[in-house]
Design brief:
heterodimer, A: mainly alpha, MetI-like fold, two-stranded antiparallel sheet, 12 helices, globular, B: mainly alpha
């Protein structure tokens, strides 16, 4: 039956609107939740940063950008930022080397290899609280295994978590172990996506093991390396649990990363204004770092 | 002639044997490295097991004991008695279960809209969804905490005659532990990517059969997406079960603590006997290890979804 042209046009014009109705019907739960728990808090944090807080945690006087200038330019934030940067380097670089090493070991075709894959992935099943409690015992100054190993290696017996020079490396060690499973899983998936024929060509060209690693494995793995670097950096900047359990930001602020500083300012000193400024600072830092890494590392990434 | 071929065979056999020997040599090295690496990775877990079984008298032994000489299984029951560890586990289970189911529902609905419905503003809305991935929880934590407090202390929060004060979100409630995490941009993205691979002709055919969008999603799209739904579920389980900062802030009541926070209560109570604390830690770690062993494939797919181009 031939349709009237006008009806067809009308129906076609209405279809997107009808879809919009259905779309909103499907999307409203997520939109509502994101509005209340992500976008509103983000704007509210920026807003809270403009106000001082009284000692009871109530909103005080409007001080505008002065609070942003004094907090972000102050030595406390600079110290926290420096600790966070060190923590990031201490955890991301060894995490990549060890994760890649374990993934290459687990990528061999051997009987029983799946058992080793599960073992190497196992720390992904360890929560930050569980891992921190395990390492709290290993790092114990009187009976800990790490303390004992260091002493056997000629170090004087130390209370690692209470020593300004050792606390951050000790927390980093815990974090490296905690994130090792994730890095291994991701690297293993990356290795398995490299086509076998590339290795065959390299072999025919007479490349040795090291040559193959540098000229086939690493370039083909560069998207994975980029991913692990970006995710590792974000994880490091957002770390909280291990510091809360192991050192509480101490000793002498040696492990007082930005997130921990936000926590103490907001929920122990009840200074929501200062804490909000730090939170906004953290947001900008994470956003900027991720952007920079994607921009500069992306160029070195070789996509197939 | 015969001798010659015999000699050849012998030669072939010896080379083969030599090759097998070399292969074994290589394999032996590989296994040695694998076992060494596995030992180092497992050492913290192994030491936790050893410590959890130590009798009280030997926990101060130095150098640390590497084997449990007289295993004390009572440490586990003591950990369960000293603090409401079973209650903590139940709380974590409820919190995790609600978040997993909630995320599956909201993500499936949103992903369907982004994959199957054409409407103005869809691209922009999708970008807005993705942008939430860039806001760390730690950045939004203060206003979210204030929202929970405000909801609890607002006496005149009435909607349609119902007094909602403290009912939707308040400290020490399952709502506060779960509602902020019921939507997921990562999950929406993951499901959308999969939904896009479902042929549109299927939608057209279903429409002819009189299937509306809801029925099509429920009876066609979701059954076709079981593996990716499983990946999302395992991923959501992992991140919900492991949460630390938010449950720390919104639970004061001992009976509402999740197991991650409850471990600190156990530590505070058993400050002198870390064997009991380690036993509790192992109990807390068990569900996740069980998940890893049972659903390793799904977990790996969920974790690598963003990492490797497929």
């Amino acid at each position: 039956m031939p349709q009237l042209p006008a009806v067809g046009v009308l129906a076609r014009g209405l279809a997107p609107l009808k879809n919009l109705g259905f779309g909103l019907l499907f999307l409203w739960p997520s939109i509502l939740l994101f509005s209340i728990f992500v976008f509103y808090p983000l704007i509210k944090s920026v807003y809270l940063g403009f106000y001082e807080s009284d000692p009871l945690g109530n909103q005080g006087d409007y001080v505008g950008f002065d609070q942003y200038r004094s907090v972000l330019g102050g030595s406390d934030f600079r110290d926290s930022l420096w600790v966070t940067v060190k923590f990031t380097v201490y955890t991301v670089v060894p995490g990549i080397v060890l994760g890649l090493g374990l993934a290459m070991l687990a990528n061999q075709k051997l009987p029983g290899i799946s058992i080793f894959r599960t073992i190497f992935a196992s720390t992904v099943a360890t929560s930050v609280a569980v891992a921190s409690m395990m390492w709290l015992t290993l790092l114990n100054p009187t009976t800990g295994l790490v303390t004992w190993i260091l002493e056997e290696l000629g170090q004087p017996r130390l209370n690692l978590l209470n020593d300004p020079d050792w606390a951050l490396p000790a927390v980093s060690l815990t974090t490296i172990w905690l994130n090792l499973g994730l890095a291994t899983i991701v690297f293993l998936a990356g290795l398995q996506s490299i086509p076998e024929r590339l290795y065959e060509s390299a072999r025919i060209d007479g490349a040795g093991r090291i040559g193959t690693f540098w000229h086939v494995t690493l370039p083909m793995l560069s998207p994975t390396l980029l991913f692990v670097t970006v995710v590792g950096t974000i994880l490091a900047f957002e770390s909280f649990g291990q510091i809360h359990i192991l050192t509480r930001g101490g000793p002498l602020g040696a492990t007082n990363v930005i997130v921990y500083s936000i926590y103490t300012e907001a929920f122990q000193s009840f200074d929501y204004g200062v804490a909000s400024v730090q939170a906004v600072g953290l947001f900008v830092l994470v956003l900027g770092l991720t952007g920079l890494q994607l921009r500069f590392l992306e160029r070195r990434v070789f996509y197939q | 002639m015969a001798t010659q071929s015999e000699a050849l065979t012998t030669k072939a056999v010896t080379t083969e044997r030599a090759a097998r020997h070399r292969a074994w040599g290589r394999h032996a090295l590989s296994y040695a490295l694998l076992i060494l690496a596995a030992t180092v990775v497992l050492l913290p877990i192994y030491m936790t097991v050893v410590n959890a079984l130590l009798p009280k008298e030997t926990i101060v032994a130095y150098p640390p004991k590497l084997f449990p000489s007289d295993p004390q299984w009572g440490n586990f029951t003591r950990a369960l008695d000293e603090v409401p560890l079973a209650r903590y586990m139940l709380n974590s289970t409820i919190q995790t279960g609600v978040i997993v189911i909630g995320q599956l529902v909201t993500a499936a609905l949103a992903a369907y809209a982004f994959a199957f419905l054409r409407f103005p503003g869809r691209g922009l809305l999708f970008l807005i969804f993705l942008s939430t991935l860039m806001v760390p929880l730690e950045v939004s934590i203060i206003p979210n905490f204030q929202t929970v407090q405000w909801m609890a202390h607002k006496p005149d929060l009435e909607i349609l005659g119902f007094n909602l004060a403290g009912k939707i979100l308040s400290k020490d409630s399952y709502q506060a532990l779960t509602i902020p995490f019921l939507a997921t941009a990562f999950g929406t993205f993951l499901l959308r990517q999969h939904f896009m691979t479902i042929p549109r002709e299927l939608r057209d055919a279903a429409a002819i059969d009189g299937y509306g969008h809801f029925r099509f999603l429920l009876f066609v799209v979701l059954p076709l997406s079981r593996p990716v739904l499983a990946s999302l579920a395992v991923f959501a389980f992992l991140s919900a079960w492991n949460q630390y900062l938010w449950p720390l802030l919104v639970t004061d009541d001992d009976n509402m603590r999740t197991v991650q926070i409850g471990l600190q209560a156990l530590r505070g109570r058993e400050i002198d006997s870390f064997n009991v604390v380690m036993a509790g830690t192992l109990i807390a770690a068990m569900p996740m290890f069980a998940m890893l062993v049972a659903f390793q494939g799904q977990l790996v797919r969920g974790l690598t979804a963003g990492a490797v181009k497929r």
